[in-house]
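Box S1 | Example of a co-folding query
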Amino acid sequence: MNNKTIILKPNEIPRQWYNIAADIKLNPPLGPDGKPIGPEALAPVFPMNLIEQEVSIQRWIDIPEEVLNILAIWRPTPMIRAYSFEKALNTPARIYIKNESVSPPGSHKPNTAVAQAYYNKEFGIKRLTTETGAGQWGSALAFAGSQFGLDVDVFMVRISYDQKPFRKTMMETWGGTCLSSPSDTTQAGRNILEKYPDTPGSLGIAISEAIEAAVSDKTGKTRYSLGSVLNHVMLHQTIIGLEAKKQLEKVGEYPNVIIACAGGGSNFAGIAYPYVYDKINGKEIDIYPVEPEACPTMTKAPFVYDHGDEAAYTPLLAMHSLGHNFIPPPIHAGGLRYHGIAPTLSQLINDDLITPVAVTQLEAFKAGILFSRTEGIIPAPETNHALAYTIREAEKAREEGKEKTILVNLSGHGNIDLFSYQKYLNNELSNLKLDDEALEKSKDCYKDFPEPEILKSV
Ligand SMILES: *Cc1c(COP(=O)(O)O)cnc(C)c1O
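Box S1 (continued) | Returned holo structure for pyridoxal-5'-phosphate
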């Protein structure tokens, strides 16, 4: 019998997160006056203990015992060797899949949701507001809120709200509430509805609504929570890569190639940053974040200062951005429909430490179908982007006759995304085209902002 699954014992779970801010240079976030903001500027939005983590440059940060106790529900997560997928691809490459789909909500997102709920609870917060694209983040935070007794209000991007009613059911099952965004409960939502009553919504709009709902709550006991992009979110996800390292060590492997999809960048950061640390220290690894061609933040958007949300409530972040007013085409990988990408990930692109790539919606679903029919797990539409690029790498290994070790993050399962699979199977999906004119126009929204420095970390 093949040694299919590589597991860690409960006591082998990593006890610290890896903070990449200790090892790279970053442009600071800027306030409305164009000057770097201090931690206190974020205090109405996040609890101070998380703000401290956001600005920390300490390399290793202890994971609190209370967080580990909840992560223990599904962590350490298994890693599988994708023998059948390899065989179908007729590749000499060895493909290892880190399976983050085994968490209760079905993705990597609760790794940070649990940590964020814990720090908010510690700080005396009673209610969290947030946005969600495909619904994975909203359900992860609702789950985490239920573990710590926090109320959770989720603004869900309209197109996903309509396509994935069961995500709302999950949130409500865990005691959260879920509103379609844009909603009429916030000024940001009402403004958009007035201008574009038929909008499919966007993560940028939903973030604005969630921030507004948090800061306008007079009790002072409500904060906002973000599921990706920010430094502390990337930090909490590194438990994925730290576990993966231990698992590959058990079978005497070290990856030549690492692949993960990237929307805001958090599951990619999770699997890749602990290895980026090795790369900074001399290891040779090819590291690929994969995005949709229809929302090409990393491969086509310039590195600029821009807001993280549509209504410009967030500080200016130095990142690759399609423009905070840009509404991406309604592809089914809702979690990858974001106009920006994590500042740390953007800096790694500038440093040439990672190589962004893009695939189409149809290529992604085709890969998801092959993976489902070989390895059994039905991946999330987002994850399919990583698998599509894995196929390209596996084929390259075959052409070059090279035995490579490829590590892939399976960020989530697609069991609640079957609507999109059905459309694919019915031949009703197409490769949505990016509206080049709209993209050009959206650049206007950041042209008056300061320009970030092109820094070199190594
Ligand atoms: C949210 C989500 C993503 C995209 O977000 P990142 O922050 O880039 O990881 C990818 N895959 C799944 C399954 C998701 O839920």
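The mean pLDDT is 96. Residues 5-9+64-106+238-445 form a domain with the Rossmann fold fold (CATH 3.40.50.1100).
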